[in-house]
């Protein structure tokens, strides 16, 4: 069974897509430990069973809002086989932020470029192949309210599930030499810690620590030895001033 | 630690945006400029400084008219079906206990609540269409200016609107609010927004006591009362428990869209499904309890015919004194008592208590002279205000992570209910009504 | 979107004006018809006035050939459909009630309320609106 998760900014048509994919099979529950609603449903495509989980809509994945935390945790801990990022074609700049964050988490990503009809209606032209190449993942144009493009989307989901992402392929984003250097140094310390071994994507963890993400700091404090943690913090503090 | 974090976070974010800009630059060939769209045109009207709020009120009125008036014939159809089933099972089943259970407990009790599926689903459908069309966000925007002056945050508008359907998802919807104080206020006043569970009570009582001409007005008055109380309570909370200015309001306005019929229906169904589940479980369970209490002891009550001798009457008479000043009898007392679980049970209880009659529930209310228009209206107000139902209490407890606030809600709402009903009765008596 | 030619605008403006006055008249008729309208009846009158105001606010823009005139006309049409449609549904419900034996009679004439009549009058504008906005994006 393929485990897929849907994510995207609020109001981009994620619910419509979820409904079209799962129809009446959807069940509503809660994410464990929190009162955030969890919708899940099933779909069968090309003989494969696909479980689709609807993650809360989010602009970003910080520790500040419960919804974002739930989505982030699900991706990092549950490791779904495929993540479908629903992007609003007429609001690319705003939507791609989340996409970049997801790529950073080594998500096996498929981008659904929704509101394709509006893109055309506004006289915009988006080069799908180029976008796909730049992001490093498949991009499927869709029109959720009519269902157009959804068969292609289902194809993409099954195909993506078949090709596991190589680790680190998600680093579509190079932050610039100075930051990259810092990230690598932190990653080195993280890699030495056997307790963390493979649990989280190292690069993502490093970046989170750079951002001082409260949740991550709390969790790593429990796992890393105090000397390792001190090492990381001293590295960061040393280099931080140089970065602007 | 946080010193470095701030600097690095913003540096990282900036690099991300730079990268996005270059991606978009490379991939988007044409037409990235803003153009005037149909959405912009419609917003000229719906967000208009002068027309915005009146249009919203119009939409609101249309929504309620649709939910109540248009669903009426369907209510009647369901009512007739249950009446027939009740009568048939009363005759057809030989064992008197079972006959009573099925005809009175199930068809009488549960049935009296299920008849309200049409207006409840109608309301959910209307809310779904409003949301899917994109208008709901405009309504929130337009009401925000007004709500700000009342000490309410514009973002609380949508949770409050959802409250017209059911308070539980409405309270969960407050999660989208970032100011804790605004969120608490919204959660605490939410139960005052009349939910669909109270609808059956209003329709039953208003329909019976006020006649076709004024029933709608009476129901509207109760809804309006709820809104006024919610606003007043919010103002009081703002001044006392949760001091401070509401935070600024930023809301994303999605483009308008013609709501897709199947998706709105699915939307309506997923909300309505919760009501049906509740009906099948909690309400059904409670009406069975009520049935049992009103038909036992079996001999004394001759199988529920002589209600006055049953356990439920005993309970009712015990509580009755509390409600006597309002002119309500013991039946009202037990109905309110069981209504603590779910407000529909108020109707369900009457369904069982009066089900022994052949006539419909409304006529029974009138023929037995259980309420006058004044006491009936006060009763509707009481049901509107007193205690949030068990599910809502649970939702508040979950969302605030403590039992303090639900307990507070319970207490303040009950007190408010007594006060308001008291005022209504007193005012009515002063004017010479009985 | 087609440029609003002056001739076009004047005609649309007049149409909107008539509709605006029409809804106003309907509100007056409704008010006069009921002896004591307070408070529930106030709402149905208010609704008619709101629709009237929406049309009237577009008249000036339409005559001058401005885009906002079209906006108000569109808004007005949407409201006409919503309110008129509602009254149609209510008439249908009343008819069903009559069939079910719950109502004494079904007076077809009184069921065709002003709101429905005005909706019918407004409908011919819909194809015109579609044509004018056909090239636009949502």
Question: How large is the share of residues in beta strands of chain C?
Answer: under 5%
Which class do the helix and strand fractions of chain C yield?
A: mainly alpha
Alpha plus pi helix count of chain C: 6
Integer-rounded radius of gyration of chain A: 19 Å
The number of helices of chain A is 10
- Secondary structure: number of strands of chain C: 0
Q: Extract low-pLDDT stretches of chain C.
A: none
The fold-level CATH name of the largest domain in chain A is Rossmann fold
Report the major sheet of chain C: none
N- to C-terminal distance of chain A:
46 Å
Output the helix-strand order of chain C: HHHHHH
Strand order of the largest sheet of chain A: 2-3-4-1-5-6-8
What oligomeric state is this? heterotrimer
Radius of gyration of chain C: 17 Å
Q: How far apart lie the N and C ends of chain C?
A: 13 Å
Topology of chain A as a string of helices (H) and strands (E): EHEEEHEHEHEHEHHHHH
Mean model confidence by pLDDT of chain C: 83
**Structural domain count of chain A:** 2
Return the structural class of chain A: alpha/beta
CATH class of the largest domain in chain A: Alpha Beta
Question: Roughly what fraction of the amino acids of chain A lie in strands?
Answer: 15-25%
Protein architecture, described:
The complex is a heterotrimer of chains A (244), B (434) and C (138). Chain A is an alpha/beta fold and 244 residues long. In chain A, 46% of the residues lie in helices and 18% in strands. Chain A is built from 10 helices and 8 strands. The model of chain A has no long low-confidence stretch (mean pLDDT 83). Chain B has one domain (49-245, 266-430). Chain B has helices spanning 2-27, 38-46, 52-69, 72-92, 96-114, 117-133, 135-149, 157-162, 167-173, 180-189, 199-239, 261-295, 311-323, 330-338, 344-354, 361-367, 373-385, 390-400, 404-430, and one strand spanning 28-30. The model of chain C has no long low-confidence stretch (mean pLDDT 83). Chain C has one domain (6-133). The radius of gyration of chain C is 17 Å and the shape is elongated. Chain C is an all-alpha fold. Helix content of chain C is 78%, strand content 0%. The chains are: A alpha/beta (244), B mainly alpha (434), C mainly alpha (138). The A-C interface holds A 118, 121-123 and C 136-138. Strand 7 of chain A pairs antiparallel with strand 1 (28-30) of chain B, so a sheet runs across the interface.
């Amino acid at each position: 069974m393929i485990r897929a998760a849907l994510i995207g900014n609020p109001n981009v048509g994620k619910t419509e897509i979820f409904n079209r994919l799962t129809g009446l099979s959807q069940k509503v529950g809660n994410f464990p430990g929190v009162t955030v609603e969890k919708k899940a449903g099933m779909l069968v495509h090309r003989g494969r069973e696909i479980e689709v989980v609807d993650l809360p809509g989010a602009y970003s994945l910080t520790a500040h809002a419960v919804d974002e935390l739930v989505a982030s945790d699900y991706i990092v801990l549950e490791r779904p086989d495929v993540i479908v990022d629903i992007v609003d074609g007429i609001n690319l700049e705003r939507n791609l932020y989340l996409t970049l964050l997801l790529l950073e988490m080594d998500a096996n990503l498929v981008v659904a470029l929704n509101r394709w009809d509006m893109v055309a209606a506004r006289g915009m032209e988006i080069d799908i192949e180029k976008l796909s190449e730049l992001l490093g993942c498949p991009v499927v144009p869709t029109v959720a309210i009519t269902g157009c493009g959804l068969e292609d989307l289902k194809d993409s989901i099954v195909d993506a599930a078949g090709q596991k992402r190589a680790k680190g392929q998600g680093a579509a984003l190079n932050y610039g030499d100075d930051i990259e250097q810092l990230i690598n140094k932190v990653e080195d310390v993280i890699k030495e810690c056997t307790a963390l071994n493979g649990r989280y994507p190292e690069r993502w963890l490093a970046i989170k620590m750079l951002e001082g993400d409260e949740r991550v700091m709390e969790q790593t404090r429990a796992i890393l030895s105090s000397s390792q943690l001190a090492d990381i913090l001293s590295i960061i503090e040393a280099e931080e001033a140089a970065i602007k | 630690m946080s010193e470095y974090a701030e600097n690095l976070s913003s540096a990282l974010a900036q690099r991300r945006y730079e990268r996005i800009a270059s991606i978009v630059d490379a991939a988007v060939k044409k037409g990235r400029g803003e153009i005037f769209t149909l959405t912009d045109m419609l917003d000229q009207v719906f967000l208009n400084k002068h027309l915005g709020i009146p249009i919203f009120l119009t939409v609101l009125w249309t929504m309620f008219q649709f939910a109540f008036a248009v669903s009426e014939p369907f209510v009647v159809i369901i009512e007739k079906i249950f009446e027939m089933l009740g009568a048939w099972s009363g005759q057809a089943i030989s064992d008197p206990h079972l006959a009573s259970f099925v005809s009175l407990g199930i068809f009488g009790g549960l049935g009296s609540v299920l008849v309200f599926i049409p207006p409840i689903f109608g309301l959910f459908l209307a809310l779904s269409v409003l949301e899917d069309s994109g208008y709901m966000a405009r309504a929130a925007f337009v009401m925000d200016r007004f709500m700000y002056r009342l000490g309410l945050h514009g973002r609380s508008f949508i949770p409050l609107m959802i409250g017209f359907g059911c308070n539980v998802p409405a309270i969960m919807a407050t999660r989208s609010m970032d100011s804790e104080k605004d969120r608490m206020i919204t959660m605490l006043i939410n139960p005052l927004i009349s939910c669909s569970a109270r609808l059956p009570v209003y329709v039953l009582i208003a329909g019976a006591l006020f006649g076709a001409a004024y029933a709608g007005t009476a129901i509207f008055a109760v809804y309006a009362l709820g809104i006024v109380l919610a606003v007043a309570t919010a103002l009081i909370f703002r001044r006392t428990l949760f001091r401070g200015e509401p935070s600024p309001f930023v809301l994303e306005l999605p483009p308008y869209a013609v709501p897709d019929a199947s998706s709105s229906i699915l939307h309506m169904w997923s909300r309505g499904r919760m009501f049906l589940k509740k009906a099948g479980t909690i309400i059904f369970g409670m009406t069975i309890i009520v049935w049992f209490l009103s038909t036992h002891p079996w001999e004394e009550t001759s199988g529920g015919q002589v209600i006055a001798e049953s356990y439920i009457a005993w309970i009712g008479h015990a509580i009755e004194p509390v409600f006597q000043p309002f002119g309500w009898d013991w039946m009202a007392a037990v109905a309110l008592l069981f209504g603590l679980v779910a407000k529909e049970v108020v109707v369900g209880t009457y369904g069982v208590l009066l089900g022994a009659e052949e006539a419909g529930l409304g006529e029974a209310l009138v023929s037995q002279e259980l309420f006058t228009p004044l006491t009936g209206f006060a009763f509707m107000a009481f049901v509107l205000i007193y205690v949030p139902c068990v599910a809502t209490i649970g939702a508040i407890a979950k969302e605030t992570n403590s039992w303090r606030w639900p307990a507070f809600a319970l207490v303040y709402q009950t007190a408010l209910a007594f006060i308001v009903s008291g005022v209504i009765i007193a005012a009515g008596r002063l004017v010479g009504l009985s | 979107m087609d440029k609003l030619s002056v001739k076009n605008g004047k005609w649309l403006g007049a149409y909107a004006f008539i509709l605006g006055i029409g809804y106003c008249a309907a509100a007056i008729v409704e008010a006069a018809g009921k002896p004591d309208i307070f408070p529930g009846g106030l709402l149905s009158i208010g609704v008619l006035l709101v629709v009237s105001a929406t049309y009237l606010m577009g008249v000036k823009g339409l005559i001058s050939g401005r885009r906002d005139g079209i906006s108000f006309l569109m808004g007005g049409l949407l409201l006409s459909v919503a309110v008129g449609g509602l009254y149609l549904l209510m008439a249908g419900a009343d008819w069903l009630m009559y069939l079910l034996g719950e109502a004494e009679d079904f007076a077809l004439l009184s069921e065709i309320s002003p709101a429905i009549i005005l909706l019918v009058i407004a409908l011919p504008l819909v194809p015109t609106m579609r044509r004018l906005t056909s090239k636009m994006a949502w």
